[in-house]
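Q: Joint fold for the lines below.
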Amino acid sequence: MFNAQTTNARAKSRSRMSQELAKDRLGIPSVLFFVLAGVAPLTVAAGVIPTAYQTTGLTGIPAAFVAIAVILGLFAIGYVAMTRHITNSGAFYAFISRGIGRAVGVGAALVALLSYSLLQVGLYGAFGPNAASEAAAHLGLHAAWWVWALGAWAVITVLGLLRVDITGWVLGVLLTAEIAVILAETVSGLLHPAGGQLTFGTLSPADLTSAGVGTFGVLAVVAVLGFVGFEQAPVLAEEAKRARRTIPTATYLALGVIAVVYAGAAWAMAAHAGQSHVVAAAGQEGPGLLFGLGNGFLSNAAQLLFLTSLFAAALAFHNVVWRYMYALGREHVLPAALGRTGGNNIPKAASLAQSATGLAVIVAYAIGGWPPMTDLFFWLGTTGGFGILLLLALTSIAVVAFFARDGLGESLWARLISPILAAALLTLIVVLAVQNYATLLGVPAGSAASWILPASYALVFVIGLAWGALLRARRPQLYKAIGLGAYAATGQLKPTATEPA
Amino acid sequence: MARLTGTGRIADDLYLIAHHEVSGRSFLHPRAIGLGLAGALLAELALPDLIRVWPEAIAVTGRSVPIQDGLVRAIVGQLLAEPERHPAKDWLQYLARTATLDVAHRLGRAGYLTQGWSRRPWRGERWVPVDADCAFAPFYRVRGALDPAKQASVIGTTVAGLAVACGLGSRLAQFGPTGALRHLDESVRQLKPDLRELIAQTQAAVDSAVLSHRV
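A: Joint structure:
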C-alpha cells in the first residue's frame, strides 16, 4: 500500500515536471508559423514572381515551384534525419561542419551570412518603391523610393535593438491574411483567363526547359528563392514539444503550402495575362500583375499586405542575420564582440552590423540611381537565393558524409538515397544557374553583375576555408568546438566526460 | 534587516546584480534571468556538496545534511521526487519558470526587497530594493573574481560566472579593471567541476534561448 502510494506520487510529480516543460514548448502550428514568417508568401507572390517573369523572360515559373518542392522534399528527408542527431541544428554551417569538416563549415558559415544578408537588404529595394507608390496614390505623399526604404531601415534598426520579433498573433493574422489574399487573387485570376480559355502550359514540365536545359537552372534559383525560410524549422528543435515529430511535420507542411500557393499564383498570373503576354505584362505592371487578378477591394488589401509582408520579411531576415552572427561570434569564428549581449540580452553589435550593411546598400543604390525593384530586390534577392541553393547542395553532401560514419538507426532511404539524389539534383541546378546567371538577372551575357554576384560566394568561401585552417593551426580548442553550438562548452568539465568527436 | 554584507547566498546576490538598485527593474530578459537564478539555486546546493551535477543528470548526494533555507530544501525535494534522470538543462528550464519570483520572495523575507506598486499589473509582481546601498553591495563582493589584484571568493566567483552566463557581462565589466572578464574566466576555472558545469549549462541554456528566438 505504502509502496503503491509512493509510486503514485512519484508518477504524478514526474508528469508534472514533464508537463510543465512541455507547456512552454512549441507545437507544430507555432513552428509552421515561424517558418512561413521567414518565407513571407506575399513578398514572393507579388514581388518575386512578376519580377522573375519580367527579368528572365521565362514562363515556366509555376512548374519550377512544383519541381523544386519535390527536390526540397527529397533534401528535407536527410536534413530532418540529421536534425535528430545533432544538438546544434541552428544552421546549415553546423550540419556542414559536422558532416564534411569544420574548415568547410566556416566557409559555409560565411556563405550563409552573405546569403541571408543579401536577402535582407534586397527587401528594401521592394519596400521602397512600393511604399512610395502607395503613399503617392493614397496619401498624396511624394518621396523617392529610398526615403521610404530608409524609413523602413530605421524602424527595423530600432526594432532590432529592442529585439522585437513580430511573433505570436500579429504574425498569425498577417500570414493568414496574406495567404487568403493570394488564394483569392489566384482563384479570381483562374476564373478570368485570357481569351476565356484556361491553359495549363506554364505548369507543364516542358516549360522548365523551354529555352534549353539551362532554363531550368534559372527557374530553379527563382523557385528556391521562394522557398527560402523553410530550412529554419530545425532552429527550433530544442524548443519543440516533440522534436522528432514536430520539426519534420512542420517542414513538410511548409513545403507543401508554399508549393501550392506559389505555383497557383504564378499559374494564375500567366493564365490571366496569357502565356505569350505574361512577360510583357510583368514588365509593365510589376506587382500589379498579382493585384490585377482580383477586384478593387481585394487589390487594395493585397497592396497594403504586400508592404506589411515585405516589412515583416525584412525584420525576420534581420533577426536571422544577427542570430547567425551571434552564433558565429560565440564560437569565435567571427569577432567575439558579435557574440556578446548588452542589456536585456540583446546582441547589439550583431544587430547594428546588419543595419550598417543595409544603410550602405540603400545609400549606394540611391546615389547610383539604379532601379531598386530589379537591381536591388531581384538581383540581390536571387543572389541570396543562389547562396541558399549552394548551402542546400553542400548540406545534402554533409548528410551523406555524417551518416556514412554511423547510420545511427536511420533508414537507408533517409541517410543515403534521398540525400544523394538531392545532392546530385541541387549540384546540377547550381552548375546550370552559374552558366545562365545573365539570364537570371536579365542582363546581356558576360556583363559584370552576372559573374561578380555568383563569384562573391566563391570569395567568401575561400576566405572561410583559410580562416578555418588558421584556427585549426593557431587555436585548436576553438576549432574543435566549431558547429557544436551552445552546449559545446558543457560536459567537458567533469572527469568522466567523453570528448566530442 | 538588510545588511551591506548580504545574505551570503548565491542566488540572492545574482538577483540583486541583475536588477536596478533603486527601481528594481531587470537588466535581462525574463527567460535569461530565470535561467541564471535557476543555475544559482542549484549552485547553492552544489557548493556544500549536497548535489552533483553532470550534463545528463543532477543527483542528490548529501541527504543527511539539514537544510535551513526553505527554497533550496524544496528543490532538493523535487530532485528526490523524480524517479528518472533528467539532463541538467531540463532542470534549469524547469526551475527557471519560477526562480525569479522565488528568489524575490526569499529576498523579501530577508528584508532586502519589498513588494512595490506595479504600474503594469498584468506584468506580475514588482519587487524593489529596500536599501539601494545593500542592493548594490553584491558588485563589491564579486570584484575579487574580476580583478587579479584582489582575492577571489568561491561565492563571488560563482555569482560573477553566472552573471556573465545569463548576459550581464558588459555590466559587470564596468566594475572591474580592463580584462576583467578574461580574469573571471581564469577564476571560474579554479572552481570545482559541479559549479563550472552549472555555469556552462546556464550559459548554454541562455545562448540556446537567444538562438531559438525565445529570448
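Q: Anything notable?
A: The longest strand of chain B covers residues 51-54. Chain B has one domain: 2-210.
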